[in-house]
Every structure is written in C-alpha cells, then in structure tokens.
Amino acid sequence: VLDATLELLAEGGHPALSFEAIAQRAGVNRTTLYRRWGTREAVMLDALLEQGRERVPIPDTGSLHGDLVAYGEAIAKSLVTPETEALVRAVVSSRDAPLADASRRFWRTRLELAREMVEHAIARREVPPDTDADALLEALLGGIYFRLLMSREEIDGDFVRRLADLLSAPPARLKGRRRAAS
Amino acid sequence: VLDATLELLAEGGHPALSFEAIAQRAGVNRTTLYRRWGTREAVMLDALLEQGRERVPIPDTGSLHGDLVAYGEAIAKSLVTPETEALVRAVVSSRDAPLADASRRFWRTRLELAREMVEHAIARREVPPDTDADALLEALLGGIYFRLLMSREEIDGDFVRRLADLLSAPPARLKGRRRAAS
C-alpha cells in the first residue's frame, strides 16, 4: 500500500491521489484502506515517513550550526513545492483523529532521526550532555513552519541561518562569531 | 466593522460569523467588506489584532525566562479553546491572498509588541545587545504552533518551560539551573 501510494504521488501528486487509485494499484480492498487510515492524507504521511526513513539524510557537517542550517534548508526547500505545501495545508486544517495519529507517528520518527545531530554535537563536546535535543529541533522546525503557516513571511537561507545561530550557540559565542564575520 | 466583528465573535464564535452578519451589525455594505477583506477570516484577524493591541499584555516578570514562560503559556492557553483552534486551522489551510496579507499584518504587529521582552532583557544586561529578538520569538511561537498543527503533541507548561530554558539561557547556565532544581 505504501509503495503504491508513493508511486501515485510521484506520478500525479497529492490532488490525484484517491483511496480508489491506491487500492487498485496495491491490489487491496478500498474498505481495508479506509478502516486502517480514514483519510488519504494519513496514508500519504505514512508513505512519506517510510520513504523518509531511507531517503532523508541527516546532515553531518562537523558542527551543530552547520547541521542545523543544512537540515533547516532541506526542510524549507521541500516546502516550496506546491505539492508539499498543499499536503501540509490539508493535514494541518483537519481535526480527523486517524490523521492526527499519522502526524504524531510521522513527527515522532522524524524527530528521533534528527536527534542524531545533537547527539553528535554532544559527542564532540560542542554542547553540554543535557542539551534538550527535542526542544531544540521543535524550535527549529517550528520557526520554519511558523513562517509558512502563520506569519506568511519568506523562509530564506538567512532566516534558517538566524535560527541555527540562536539554537546552536550561547549568546556569548554568537557575539564573537558575528564580530569575526563582519 | 472591527468592533462589530469582535461583538459577533464574542456572541457566537467563528462558525456563526458571516460577511452578512458583520455588514448588518456595522451598518455597512456587504460588498465593501468583501472588497476590502476577501474572506471572513481576514476581517477576524484584523479585529483580533486590534483587540490584542489593547488587551494582550506583554509580561514583565523581571527575567527573560519568566517573560517567555508567561507569554508562551498565554498563547498555549488561548489555543485550547475550540473557537481559536478552529480559526487557526481555517486560516492556515487557505492560500487566499488577502488572508495571507492579514496574517502577515497580524504577526508583524504581534512580534513587534513581543520584542519588548527581549529589549527589557537587553536593558537588564541579561542577554547581549545584538540578541536576535525576532528569531527568538519565532522559535518560541513556532515550537508551540508546531505541536498544535504538525506533531499534534500536547502543549503543556513543561514544554513551554523547556522552550524558554533553551531560548533564554546559554547551555552553560542552563546546566547550572537544572542541577539546582533537581
């Protein structure tokens, strides 16, 4: 089912995807899909999650700042495609319970994978061992999605870098870096 | 028009609000409203912004951490009402241009007001003078809205405090505070 969903997404995108098309391609009963997922967006999230496990690389640039910039820019880049934006807006607008569950699964897995960047920074003694990796990643992702969904401001490289500055370095070190750069 | 919108919102909430009802209450032509705002959500955002200018207090607890916790908790609390949540989901799901403009105005003004918390912290020499107030506030608000809209995780006081920990203090100080608390 998930493979069929990914194939159909690649072929026609989010608007073309229906339970009927997925059921036909996967050779399963439409009712089975409906019972398991409830909405087509929930199937899509699970399919994208499965794909992401294999394909979304977690950056390893040698510094937390570099990793956060690379990761944030990859997310920002994925959001400018009309298809992803349409999927995101469809998912966030819904209060459907199976879709909320699929969102929760999706982000729990994505955050767990992304935590590696903070773990590497801890191993390099770049940040203290008790650094709150989840809060840090939710603030980074949150800042990006806040502009997409709430404030409708541009998500450019400069904004991602400013979030990474803030989240990867204490103010004192930040100050030094800015002076060195100017 | 904005007063009429606020009155109607207070009486019946978001679902009950129509251009027709606003036009009638405000004594203006429906077409005028439509031409100026395009969607009922855009009128609501402008009305809430006008109200917020007077009523949403920016906390002044004496520390940046305390201010961020108080501010974040007030936002989180406002989002648990079904009315606000319905309005947020309706706004974020739309690609309507006048609504996007209203969202941009709304958040530019809200962020400008909230910047005061960081300015106070700079004046107290709690954080360096070049602290990126906008990135900090977008990360705080973003983290909260990320849970509401994307990851569907609970937005409790603990989560708000963790974001405030991360954004108000360099890791070294954080460590000290956590040890003292445990």
Task: Provide an overview of this structure.
The structure is a homodimer of 182-residue chains. In chain A, helix 4 (40-55) runs parallel beside helix 7, helix 5 (64-79) runs antiparallel to helix 9 (157-168) and helix 8 packs antiparallel against helix 9. Chain A contains ten helices and no strands. In chain A, 79% of the residues lie in helices and 0% in strands. The radius of gyration of chain A is 19 Å and the shape is elongated. In chain A, 36% of the residues are buried. The first copy, chain A, has helices at residues 2-16, 19-26, 30-37, 40-55, 64-79, 82-93, 97-123, 133-151, 157-168, 171-181.
List the helices and strands and how they pair.
Two copies of one chain form a homodimer.
Chain A (H helix, E strand, L loop, with lengths): L1 H15 L2 H8 L3 H8 L2 H16 L8 H16 L2 H12 L3 H27 L9 H19 L5 H12 L2 H11 L1
Helix pairs in contact in A: 1-2, 1-4, 4-7, 5-8, 5-9, 7-8, 8-9
Multimerization state: homodimer
SSE succession of chain A:
HHHHHHHHHH
Q: Output the number of helix runs of chain A.
A: 10
Low-confidence stretches of chain A: 171-182
Task: Please state roughly what percent of the residues of chain A sit in beta strands, choosing from under 5%, 5-15%, 15-25%, 25-35%, 35-45% or over 45%.
Answer: under 5%
Largest interface comes to:
A-B, 51 and 52 residues
Derived from helix and strand composition plus strand pairing, the structural class of chain A reads mainly alpha
Instruction: Count all strands of chain A and give the number.
Output: 0
Radius of gyration of chain A from the CA trace? Answer: 19 Å
Shape of chain A: elongated
Helix content of chain A: over 70%
Mean pLDDT level of chain A: 84
Major beta-sheet overview of chain A = none
Distance between the termini of chain A: 53 Å
